[in-house]
């Protein structure tokens, strides 16, 4: 993009450990102050697996690390929504999106405990989405993104093969990070007002593809 096309927006960066309720309260207080009113949308884009980081196999899971993984990657969404709820920080029809992965529905062995974490994240999305919808017409959804090369993504064992396989198994190919951001913007807009409690696949068709010609050819000529 040419620099003359850039619109510079000044916004503060407010640090918060998403497992800490005091940090979250401070984050919402400062945000409300900054915006001079309530909030229209929130993106939960947080994940961390201690067992993956420390190389623990799923069958030999360290349960203390697992508790921390679930707290950071899943229950944090409940904590964010709960803080917003208690402070009445969201406008009517506000939109909350959390990022997830299809390992919540299907087994991808090296995704390890994050598969369980994403299943819980998607459940919290539905449950809190119900209560927040009834209370204030706030909607809550997850976007299930293609594998994408980021810090967290690259932590998954054999990630390169994983990305290539998903790409070959998707009629449209893997969705990029930028396209994921575009989809989030769509979900934050008023054009999707009646979408809530959903897990929305943003994966180039991967989730509903049984096999592709490209994968068949690879299997015939390995
Ligand atoms: N990369 C992929 O292939 C992929 C695919 C589908 C979904 N996702 C999801 O997208 C989201 C973003 O991940 P990413 O791939 O951009 O990786 P990332 O490592 O860049 O992002 C993870 C973020 O979580 C933050 N974080 C970790 N612990 C925290 C804590 N206690 N408090 C506050 N923040 C904390 C980190 O600072 C980091 O910004 C995650 O939920 C991830 O599971 C990623």
Compact summary:
The protein is of the alpha/beta class and 222 residues long.
Note down, in words, how this protein is organized.
The chain is of the alpha/beta class and 222 residues long. The protein has a single domain (37-220), classed as Rossmann fold. Helices cover 45% and strands 13% of the residues. The chain is built from eight helices and four strands. A four-stranded parallel β-sheet has the order 1-2-3-4, sandwiched between helices. Helix 1 packs parallel to helix 3 (63-87) and helix 3 (63-87) runs parallel beside helix 4 (114-136). The chain is globular and about 60 Å long. Residues 17-19, 45-48, 72, 99-101, 145, 147-148, 150-153 line the site of nicotinamide-adenine-dinucleotide. Residues 17-19, 45-48, 72, 99-101, 145, 147-148, 150-153 line the site of nicotinamide-adenine-dinucleotide (NAD).
Strand and helix map with partners:
Elements: H1 21-35, E1 39-44, H2 50-53, H3 63-87, E2 90-100, H4 114-136, E3 139-145, H5 151-154, H6 159-168, H7 177-188, E4 199-202, H8 213-220
Parallel strand pairs: 1-2, 2-3, 3-4
Helix pairs in contact: 1-3, 3-4
The structure holds nicotinamide-adenine-dinucleotide.
């Amino acid at each position: 993009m040419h620099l003359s096309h850039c619109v510079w927006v000044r916004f503060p960066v407010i640090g918060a450990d998403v497992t800490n309720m005091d940090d979250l309260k401070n984050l919402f207080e400062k945000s409300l102050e900054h915006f001079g009113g309530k909030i229209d949308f929130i993106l939960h884009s947080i994940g961390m697996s201690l067992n993956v980081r420390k190389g623990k196999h799923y069958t030999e899971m360290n349960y203390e690390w697992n508790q921390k993984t679930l707290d950071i990657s899943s229950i944090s969404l409940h904590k964010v929504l709960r803080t917003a709820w208690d402070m009445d920080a969201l406008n009517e029809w506000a939109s909350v999106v959390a990022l997830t992965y299809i390992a919540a529905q299907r087994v991808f062995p090296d995704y390890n405990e994050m598969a369980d974490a994403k299943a819980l994240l998607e459940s919290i999305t539905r449950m809190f989405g119900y209560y927040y919808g009834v209370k204030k017409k706030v909607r809550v959804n997850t976007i299930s993104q293609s594998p994408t090369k980021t810090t967290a993504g690259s932590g998954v064992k054999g990630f390169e093969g994983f990305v290539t396989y998903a790409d070959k198994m998707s009629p449209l190919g893997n969705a990029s990070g930028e396209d994921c951001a575009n989809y989030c913007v769509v979900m934050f807009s008023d054009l999707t007002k009646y979408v809530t409690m959903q897990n929305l696949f943003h994966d180039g068709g991967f989730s509903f593809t049984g096999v592709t010609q490209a994968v068949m050819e690879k299997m015939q000529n390995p």
